[in-house]
Amino acid sequence: MAEEIVEKNIYLVNAPAGSGKTTTIKSMIFKHLVKYPNDNILCITYTNRAAEELGKDMDSKKVCFSTIHSFLHNFLKIYFSHEQIINLYFEIYGSEIMRRISNENEDERITRSNERYIEKNGDLSFDLIKANLKSIYYNESQFNSLYYGGLSHDDLITFSKLVFKKFPVINRRLTKKYQLIFIDEYQDSSANVLKLFYQAVHATSTELYFLGDKMQQIYMNYDGSFEDKLLTLNQSIKLTTNYRSVPAVINILNKLYNNNLYKQEPTEKNLNIAVDHLPRIVLCDDVSEKLKLEKQNYPDALLLFLLNQKRFDAIGAGDLYRKYNNMERYSFIQQYSAVDVLINDSQDNPDSLVKLLFMVNQIAEDYSLKSLGNIVQLFKRNPKIFNDSVFTVKKHEDKRRLNKFLQKISEVYSDTERVYSIKSVLNVFLETELGRPEYISSIIDDEDYSLVLDVKLEEFRFLAQYLKTPNVSTQHGVKGESHDTVFFIAEDNNNKPLVHMYRFFKMWSSMEVSLDDFESFYYEYVEWINETISYLGFKLTEINSALHKEHQGYLKSRVNHLLKHFENNDYFKNLCESEYKAYLKNSIVRTAKMCFKESQVYGSLSAYRLFYVGCSRARQNLSVFIDKTKIEEFSSQLMKKFNETGFVIVE
């Protein structure tokens, strides 16, 4: 039951696509600092890139832009060596540490970890670990280092929430230090993050703003456990103007959202913009061939694929992405992904090789323009990478020698006839000694890079060229971008990201869909799944004949109750009901495995959001490419729905 008291100082600001959220945050910060110049402001963003974007043109030392992990680590590290914090650590993780020490299942990875600890410390016991551990720390990976106090990405947040809750003095320090706090993209934050800030700011004078849009939620971080609190927040600030799109696109977004509370209006300047065509549904026998034809008419169109691999294949850098994506350091739940480093051409790129290659690209461009001064300045700004004894120009002979080296680098990088590998350009740096040997060798000798170094150099050239005018992206990675013309390619995927686009289309064509109702059903359905798993002690996907025989009575009873509970729910009927009825009709292991699966619902919910996000990127011209073979059984219904939503149908 939602609480009735409205939190006057804690705001929920819904910021639909194109509503100027970044501009709004900056404006609020400037206005606050004018009025209260001595206040401190904290702005938590989801990614480092978002933090950089918000911090642009912001010169005040009174404002901190940070990701949640960086902020928590920096804010709490002064406490992480305190005895009470360490005691809390062992209170939370003690039993898990004991299990790792005993290693009853003889896990090889744990065995090696235990052996390393013994080699270093002479023994391994809970008391010894406790005696040796002097401080907690954030280890910046997806795994805990339990013996050493290293907290993973997820556990840093979980543990921090417990620290804030247990020690009120830390709450007070937060609100004493910061008088204004923004949580950007709140919908992609875990509930623990939202609860942490809520409990710290509740009943204080600090103002807290949760900004974002649930329709643009693209990660599975949020579990719905903060919903009741969200209903109590101050929602007096409304962002109802869409500054990006023409009326025809906004009309579609409003109908997709299907909630008058979030209805957007166009700006006056966008009312009379001439468009090439109304938003289109392009029915395809062969999507790839159709895209090629359409790209001839719209060469600058933004292509929105579902998967990053297709995105980089379209750029011409598919092998480069594939090799980077397979590197352990850029695995799914690491701090940075392969995409993060491959599209970051700034000085802050965390990848040593990509950072250098972007500099090589700049060197080649400046050399072709005879801008030697720019190149020397680039070298001076990066003394850890480039050898100043080689690029320092004191006399004409030095300039001639440097020019010779630059010519060689530029020729290797820019050659379109010979096939060079990425390693080739690194070898040139070693041969000319222009690059510091320790920097270049650290890349060449790193096993993680062994496969990347064999990738054709031209793939990086294609990537660098693409980033100047990016026109290919993914539906997950496109938030915040916008283009005059957008091509959205409707696709399914059963892995990560889980997206059932055509299943969503089938459901959407037969019923009214709104985000609030869909999410409400999803969170309630997940509760049923979790309660079932909790009782059984295993997931239905893990069931075998013996387990099924043992629990068949419970499962049938549970399924009957579920069918009764959701008998009038259209989402359940469309997405789940047939699997449960199939189990009652034929109660075997195979049909049991189809029940109580979160993916049955999440895949369509994810598709709904992505479809909205993809359409919202278009400023003027929007085309959605549909595979005709996947909609045959509900084609007429779906075409009618598309027409009602504002699309025209073309083949």
Question: What does this molecule look like?
Answer:
The chain has 651 residues and is of the alpha/beta class. 52% of the residues lie in helices and 12% in strands. Strands 3-2-6-7-1-8 form a six-stranded parallel β-sheet, sandwiched between helices. A six-stranded parallel β-sheet has the order 13-12-14-17-11-18, with helices on both faces. Helix 11 links the parallel strand 9 (241-242) and strand 10 (265-266). Helix 3 crosses helix 7 (153-166), helix 19 (396-414) runs antiparallel to helix 20 (422-432) and helix 24 (515-536) runs antiparallel to helix 29 (599-616). The two termini are 49 Å apart.
The unreliable regions are none
| Structural classification | alpha/beta
User: What general outline do the C-alpha atoms trace?
Assistant: globular
Q: What is the number of helical segments per DSSP (H or I, 4+ residues)?
A: 30
Question: How many DSSP-defined strands?
Answer: 18
Strand order of the largest sheet: 3-2-6-7-1-8
User: What integer value in Å does the Rg equal?
Assistant: 28 Å
Q: Distance between the terminal alpha carbons, to the nearest Å?
A: 49 Å
Write the layout of secondary structure elements.
Layout: E1 7-14, H1 21-35, E2 41-45, H2 48-55, E3 63-67, H3 68-76, H4 83-102, H5 108-121, H6 126-132, E4 137-138, E5 150-151, H7 153-166, H8 168-177, E6 180-184, H9 191-201, E7 207-212, H10 227-230, E8 233-234, E9 241-242, H11 247-257, E10 265-266, E11 280-284, H12 287-297, E12 302-305, H13 308-315, H14 318-325, H15 338-342, H16 352-368, H17 372-381, H18 388-391, H19 396-414, H20 422-432, H21 437-444, H22 457-468, E13 472-474, E14 483-489, E15 492-493, E16 499-500, H23 501-510, H24 515-536, H25 545-565, H26 570-575, H27 577-585, H28 589-592, H29 599-616, E17 618-627, H30 635-645, E18 648-650
Parallel strand pairs: 1-7, 1-8, 2-3, 2-6, 4-5, 6-7, 9-10, 11-17, 11-18, 12-13, 12-14, 14-17
Antiparallel strand pairs: 15-16
Helix pairs in contact: 3-7, 7-8, 7-9, 11-29, 13-14, 16-17, 16-19, 19-20, 20-21, 23-29, 23-30, 24-29, 25-27
